Amino acid sequence: MNDDRSSGRSLGRRLALKRIGAGALTLLAADAIRAADSSPGFSCIATPEQTEGPYFVDERLNRSDLRSDPANGSLKEGVPLKLRLIAHRITGTACAPLAGAIIDVWHCDARGVYSDVDDPSFSAVGHKFLRGYQTTGDDGSVEFTTIYPGWYRGRTTHVHFKVRGRSPAGGAYAFTSQLYFDEATSDRVYVRPPYAGSGRRTRNDDDPIYRSGGKALTLTLASDDSGYSGRFDIGLRIA
């Protein structure tokens, strides 16, 4: 299911939409603005893993600010978005912070373009904007500064993420899924430049990948004068 574009292979979006994955690991989707990182009352509600899609490239960019392009130093324009992701390990009905996990985040720019891939509708090979990873601390959290993603035909607004690491038993684990956004928020964002003028967009309920668990993966965002911020709790059952 993993289509690594670093080899230069080209895969169209229409084919990618057919690749809706399911994995052995499970994701905990909890309220994005819960105050506690981990507590006895933390709700361990599991939902399915979602497809990686064709645009993951392991750039090995250890950074919290994803907006810059190392190829030329430019910054991607868009409404600022701050993401706090908190990883938990689920054991039985208990949840504890998952330290030392690598969390990758990647998404398209305001015009629906992914960096460092060759697609029939665009080519951004050699650029590395809106990609990066962080390693979780003792509290299981990482933070990213990015922009509100754009969209492209056939997919609703989304952000990809992957969690990787070593299990207590010594084996490797990898979990991939996607985050989504409230329609009303996207409507407000997309009338602003550089998003404006992109035409009729695909909405959540029109996206077959969203319809397979996307409601539980939808971010709750807080707004300020400059943009938005959101928190999402990720929970994994790791052998």
Structure overview:
This protein is mostly beta strands and 239 residues long. It has one domain: Aromatic compound dioxygenase (Protocatechuate 3,4-Dioxygenase, subunit A). The protein has 2 helices and 13 strands, in the order αβββββββββββαββ. It has helices at residues 13-16, 183-189, and strands spanning 27-28, 46-47, 80-91, 94-97, 102-106, 118-119, 122-123, 131-135, 141-147, 158-166, 172-180, 221-223, 228-236. Strands 3, 4, 9, 12 and 13 form a 5-stranded mixed sheet that branches. The longest helix is centred in the C-terminal third of the chain and has 7 residues, at 183-189. The protein is globular. The two termini are 22 Å apart. Residues 1-43 have low confidence and may be disordered.
Number of helices: 2
Average predicted local confidence, pLDDT: 82
Number of domains: 1
Terminal Cα span = 22 Å
Shape: globular
Which structural class should the secondary elements be placed in?
A: mainly beta
Poorly predicted ranges:
1-43
* CATH C-level category: Mainly Beta
State the total count of DSSP E strands. Answer: 13
Round the Cα radius of gyration to an integer and report it.
Answer: 17 Å
Topology as H/E string?
A: HEEEEEEEEEEEHEE
CATH topology name, in short, is: Protocatechuate 3,4-Dioxygenase, subunit A
CATH superfamily: Aromatic compound dioxygenase
The proportion of residues in beta strands is 25-35%
Outline the biggest β-sheet: 5 strands, mixed
| Helix percentage range | under 10%
Concise account of the structure shown:
By secondary structure, the chain is mainly β. 5% of the residues lie in helices and 30% in strands.
